[in-house]
Amino acid sequence: MRVLLLGGTTEASRMAKTLVQAGVDAVFSYAGRTNAPVAQPLPTRVGGFGGVAGLRTFLESEHITHVIDATHPFAAGMSGNAFGACTKLNLPLIRLERPAWKAGVGDNWTMVASVEHMPAALPDTPARVFLAIGKQQIGLFATKPQHHYLLRLVDLPEEKLPLPDANVVISRGPFDVAGDTFLMREHAITHVVAKNSGGTGARAKLDAARILGLPVLMADRPVLPGDNIAVNEAQVLAWLGHNTDRGV
Ligand code: 3Y8
Ligand code: NAP
């Protein structure tokens, strides 16, 4: 058995440790989106594979027998490619996915079909928007330059931001409620824009929004192919035919 673990999330980092403890031969993969990703306890490769064809070549040349897709729910490109390549090669694939967040008592969420639909969902009158969706889709908001934006990014942007009125904070997360509440008060935020990532690493801003009584625009997840889904590391180990009696 030789596993490819597609990573880049808290769950993927936990899965890597679980595979090491279970003595499973595996390789970890990052997209290379950030300058210094968190080190992993597995041999790690960084960078795109080169589409489905490139991934297929990797899977064959590395004699991979199983693929665990532990990428982010919004990493639709990678998940789509993994499904395509594994289907073509008839390789077993499982997606390790965290449940979506659901609005609770005291939350003021507006669900938006996708991040692309977010700018239209913002008010026309100038607001102060916490844009906590990373850097790849900031350009979408250039159609609403009247707002002040607070951007939280993993790395300093190399190129000029496409928004005339923006503050940038550099932070990798996972985040906590006290920190996000302070940040949003300090910047007099009036609206929070988020992706329904699920998990714990990005949740704090939603609890801070509830504390501060702020509206949240929540982008729904893209629909991903494949229905073989695990919600925790133990389910993935069982699928691999390993049990968790080593207390993992
Ligand atoms: C490169 C690996 C860990 C992993 C931490 C999780 C938690 C913090 C929350 C906010 C939301 C956002 C963003 C976010 C979170 C965790 C987790 C998660 C959101 C790292 C990582 C990589 C990335 C890529 C990065 C994206 C960006 C998205 C920032 C490592 C830290 C906004 C998603 O600068 C860029 O180009 C950043 C790109 C993809 C979304 C985007 O489209 O810009 N994640 N994030 C992975 C790779 O190269 O393969 O660098 O160490 C992983 C984590 N990001 O160690 O606990 O598990 O969700 N990441 C979102 O959820 O909205 C921040 O600010 O509140
Ligand atoms: P994406 O749009 O789905 O992927 C775009 C391309 O990036 C893929 O086609 C692939 O390139 C490459 N890629 C993505 N993940 C990879 C991986 N783990 N290993 C090798 N190549 C990878 O992905 P994204 O949304 O930019 O996210 C990039 C990474 O950041 C993902 O691994 C994800 O887990 C992590 N992340 C994303 C978010 C988010 O909000 N999107 C949040 C937290 C963490 P090729 O086609 O060339 O193979």
Describe, in plain words, how this protein is organized in 3D.
The chain is an alpha/beta fold and 248 residues long. It has 7 helices and 12 strands. The strands form 2 sheets. It has a 6-stranded parallel beta sheet, with helices on both faces. Strand 10, helix 6 and strand 11 form a beta-alpha-beta unit. The radius of gyration is 19 Å and the shape is elongated. The site of ligand 3Y8 has 31 residues, from helix 1 and strand 8.
Write a brief structural summary.
With 248 residues, the chain is α/β, with parallel strands linked by helices. The chain is built from 7 helices and 12 strands.
Task: List its salient traits.
binds ligand 3Y8; 6-stranded parallel sheet; single chain; binds NADP nicotinamide-adenine-dinucleotide phosphate; 248 residues; 7 helices; alpha/beta
Which helices and strands occur, and which strands form pairs?
Layout: E1 3-6, H1 10-21, E2 26-30, E3 44-46, H2 51-61, E4 66-69, H3 76-89, E5 93-96, E6 109-112, H4 118-121, E7 128-131, E8 148-153, E9 166-170, H5 177-186, E10 191-195, H6 204-212, E11 216-219, E12 229-230, H7 233-240
Parallel strand pairs: 1-2, 1-4, 2-3, 4-5, 5-12, 6-11, 7-8, 7-10, 8-9, 10-11
Helix pairs in contact: 1-7, 2-3, 5-6
Task: Let me know the number of strands.
Answer: 12
Q: Which consecutive residue ranges, at least 5 long each, have pLDDT under 50?
A: none
- Any idea what the shape is? elongated
Helix content: 25-40%
Mean pLDDT: 95
Can you count the helices? 7
Query: From the alpha-carbon coordinates, what is the Rg to the nearest angstrom?
Result: 19 Å
N-to-C span? 19 Å
Taken as a percent bin, the fraction of beta residues is: 15-25%
Outline the biggest β-sheet: 6 strands, parallel
Name the ligand types. ligand 3Y8, NADP nicotinamide-adenine-dinucleotide phosphate
